[in-house]
Amino acid sequence: MYAALWRVLPGPLWLRILQVLVLIALVLFVLATWVFPWVDTIVNSQESTVGTP
Amino acid sequence: MSDATPPAAPAESRRARRALRRRKPVSVIGVFGEVLITGGVLVFLFIAWQLWWNDLVVAGEQSSAANQISQQWIDDAQAASSTPTPTPTNTPTAAPAQPSGFGTPVVAVAPAEAQPFAVLYVPRYGAAYSRTIAEGVGLNVLNSPRLGIGHYPGTQMPGEVGNFVVAAHRSANGGGMHLINELQLGDPIFVQTADGYYTYRFRDLEYVQPTDVGVLAAVPHAPGATATDRIITLTSCNPLYSTAERIIAYGVFDSWQPISAGPPAELAAIIAAQAAG
C-alpha cells in the first residue's frame, strides 16, 4: 500500500520525501480539523459529574 | 523473472535486484498489515489530539473567554458608578455576624441553562487560570470552548448559605480541574460574578463513587440537614485520565466584596496580569 504510493510519487528522492511530508501534514490537518472533533462527540466518556447519566 | 542473469558488475546487480523488488506483487496480507498499523497510529494520534493538542487549544479559548466576561463586569461596574444614578434604595442590611466588612454577600438568581454567570480563579491551578462558570453540567457547558465549568442546577449560588457545587473536566476539553489534587489547605478559590468577588478557602479532598450525589447536598452527605455554612464544592474525575471515581474538593466561605470595591489584593494582581495578556 505505502510502497505503491512511494512508487507512484514522481521526481528524485528529495522531492519524494518532500511530497510525503506534505501528504502527512495534510492528513494530520484533516484529522485534527474535522475527523477527531467528530470522533470526540461519539466516544466522549469524559464524565466528571456525580449522579448525572 | 527468475532467469539467472550473471552478475556482471555490482552496480548492475543492485539495479537488477531493485527491479525485482519493484515488480513484487502487492500481497493481501501486506496491505492488511499496513491497514492495521495505520489504524493503531490513528488511535494514538486521536489520544494525543484529545489529551494534549485539543486540551491546550480549548484551555486557551476558555481562559480568554473568562477574562473577557470578567473584564466586562468590571467595566460595567465602573460605568455604573461613574454615571449619576440615584443612590440605590435597596441598601444591604447590616449583618453584624458577617466575617467581612461588606455585609451579607449578594446572592444572584441562577440563570437559564448554559448561561454564564461567574468566573472561577484558582491561583493553585496557575496564575493564568480562569474559567467561566455556567448553569448546568451537560457536555454543552463542560466541553464548550467559551465555558468549561458547570454549576449543578438546584445547588446554591456563590455566597449563599449552603453548597455551591460546580463540575469540570480533569483532562481534555480544557481540563478545568486538572490540578484539583494539588490544592493545599487554605488555598484561595475566587468566584467573580457581576455582583462581586467571593473568596473561598480550600478545606479538604474526598474521593467518591460517580453515583454519590450526597456531595451535592447543602450540607454534603447530610441531605435534609439545615445548612449554616457557605461552602464551595468542586467535582471532577479521578484518577487522572479515568472516569472510575470522582474527586471532590471542598472550600469554605472566607469573605466577600462587591464589584465596586474591586477584587481582593491577591486576585487583583491575577486579573491585572491576565488582562495584560
TrEMBL record, chain B:
The active site is at residues 169, 237. The chain crosses the membrane at residues 26-53. It holds the Pfam family Sortase. Keywords: Hydrolase, Membrane, Transmembrane, Transmembrane helix. The keyword Signal does not apply. GO terms for molecular function: hydrolase activity. The keyword Transmembrane helix applies. Residues 78-99 are annotated as: Disordered. NCBIfam families: class_E_sortase, sortase_fam. This is Class E sortase. It comes from Cryobacterium zhongshanensis.
